[in-house]
Write a structure and sequence with these properties.
single chain; 197 residues; mainly alpha; 2 domains; 83% helix
Length: 197
């Protein structure tokens, strides 16, 4: 029960709403019911934000998308040389097979990018409320899904990949999950003021 309470508190849901949910849980409601209510409270709070302060919510999201896309642009200009440098260092230190080398370089890319993603989450939350990060993540996932779907389709259909197929199919969800959790971590590190949800 602590996880949904913590989420509700960190995303600024009114304490009275949280208290009502806890009372209902104590009266015998199930954990599944409690999670549904927690998600509903978050969605209603986001709707309320969009209805009452659309400019502030959209401003935060636009700033987040601009910083995120700027990082992608900068990273795309340097990633090849960075990846070759990291790959050479790994090969010099440890002899890895090609699939394992690609996996190692991909994981290092995640580690290098995670602080930027964390900062994006913090910026988005700083611009308005912590919960604005949820629609921000939805928007970024919409941007990322076509690219990731093409990568997955390529990995599944290209017969020349061999052992790399598994590596590609593993690194795509790892990158998506790392992005999501880093952005969320950045958002929830900001202390939220409790306001009416």
């Amino acid at each position: 029960m602590r996880a949904p309470l913590w989420i509700l508190e960190r995303f600024g849901i009114d304490e009275a709403v949280i208290g009502d949910l806890v009372e209902q849980l104590a009266r015998g409601r199930s954990q599944a019911w409690f999670w549904r209510q927690a998600v509903s409270a978050l969605l209603l709070a986001i709707y309320y934000d969009l209805r009452t302060s659309p400019f502030l919510l959209l401003r935060s999201m636009v700033i987040g998308v601009l910083v995120w896309r700027t990082w992608i642009l900068l990273w795309s200009m340097t990633a090849l040389s960075f990846n070759m440098w990291v790959g050479r260092m790994i090969l010099d230190a440890v002899g890895l097979s090609r699939p394992m080398l690609i996996l190692a370089v991909s994981l290092i890319n995640v580690v290098v990018s995670a602080p930027v993603w964390f900062a994006v989450g913090w910026l988005v939350a700083r611009g308005y409320r912590n919960r604005v990060v949820l629609p921000f993540l939805a928007v970024t996932w919409v941007f990322m899904l076509p690219h990731n779907a093409r990568q997955i389709e390529h990995a599944l259909t290209d017969q020349t990949l061999g052992a790399l197929k598994a590596v590609l199919l593993v690194t795509i969800p790892i990158n998506m999950a790392a992005f999501t959790f880093s952005v969320l971590a950045g958002a929830v590190c900001k202390k939220e003021r409790h306001e009416i949800a």
